[in-house]
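Exam prep: given the inputs below (a chain plus pyridoxal-5'-phosphate), describe the expected output before reading on.
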Amino acid sequence: MTLDEAFDAEAFRATGHRWVDTIADYLQRASDGAMPVLPFVPPAEMLARVDGEFPETPGDDPLALLERVLENSNHLHHPRYIGHQVATVLPQSVFVEATNALLNNGMAVYEMGQMQTAMERRVVAYLSQLIGFPEGADGVLTHGGSVGNLTALLAARQAKADYDVWTEGQREPFAVLVSEQAHYCVARAVQVMGWGAGGAVPVATDDAFRVTTNGLEAALAKARDDGRRVLAVVASSCTTATGSFDPLEDIAAFCQGHDLWLHVDGAHGASMAFSETHRDRLRGIENADSVVWDLHKLASLPALVTAVLFRDGQRSYESFAQEASYLFEEVDPATEWIDIGRRTLECTKRGLGVTSYAMLRTYGTRFFGEIVDRLVGLTRELAELLRREDDFEIATEPETNILCFRRNVDGDRDAWNRAARERLLKSGDFYIVQTTLRGEAWLRVTVMNPRTGAGDLRALVRVLREG
Ligand SMILES: Cc1ncc(COP(=O)(O)O)c(C=O)c1O
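Solution:
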């Protein structure tokens, strides 16, 4: 193919038609469970299968390559994929994503993504309203919850430090209080900010893996004894391992009492707001100063799209209180929202708002509540099933679509459960994961695919027991 042909619309059309057929066939087979969930290949063998030579002249057919990728991937549309909390993607969102890729409107400045910017603003406003934020709330979309949490904590630091930390650098050791069960990216964000390993002070949790006010008081005292100035509390809505929701009303009262910023890591659980049945889990979220919300988890959108929402929208300008004059000319406060690059770690950014906007408009907001209801319902069914079996136990009642459980066997229970997960991984019958809770091994599932059925869940118990 020549250089000109490579950019030619007709050549694209021809491949495109074949591509749609390839993807649709794949989707059908994955949804029917007509393949192993993960055709597991050890890393060295996989590397050997992927040729490291790049030809000087035209080589592979892109579709033939893609077919190999399809065959060798973890199949999230398989009804027996119940592992990590990554969305089973709405197939129609792929068209939007492909269009985004072609347009490549980078979004750092308004002109490089005018409609993308407007759509992002509408999505951010809608999500803010859904969690009960007042008029004046605002935020941005970023690539993932890890970047989102860092973005929010940078704003928290700037807001609570009483001086311009961004410009002057920090004069004292800061800290945030965060559940011992929180996702590791919170501690990582703190270390990126230079606060060291002690900058994320762990808060003890109760039997259901939720922080308590007593735990917060103890962590605050400990941080102060260690000579740290605490700026914020990070609440988990919900925790990654067990899907436990921290009590936001209590935490908000604690933050108010101690003049602390309240950040809610709702990467996984904020989507519960879509569901009339389950949104109560988020009671108190409207009091947060900032919230992170991944739409590529419970909202079935492709990775990565994360909303970082601020109750006071002006705070969203504090994360990166930096100007790049060649990009951002002096702006009118009324239109300062338009240059999203002022408020994101990313300079060039995919049109994240387009996919979320398009899917919310295409399916309607109630549909996203139905996804949540279905997934939570299936997870409760699994918990119920396991409760009826003498040899299984669950770690805690599922509050969302995450469940940890284990089989009680004679002998080394941890080793048995770890080996069982390894067997499942290698067999391709199911994809589930494992976690360690209070030093013990547990199996962990996250039901992500609305087309997983009760029969699949019964089969999981059977397959685990049969070994
Ligand atoms: C609670 C929580 N926060 C943050 C993250 C990180 O999000 P991302 O993978 O989008 O960076 C995760 C990921 O699983 C999570 O569960």
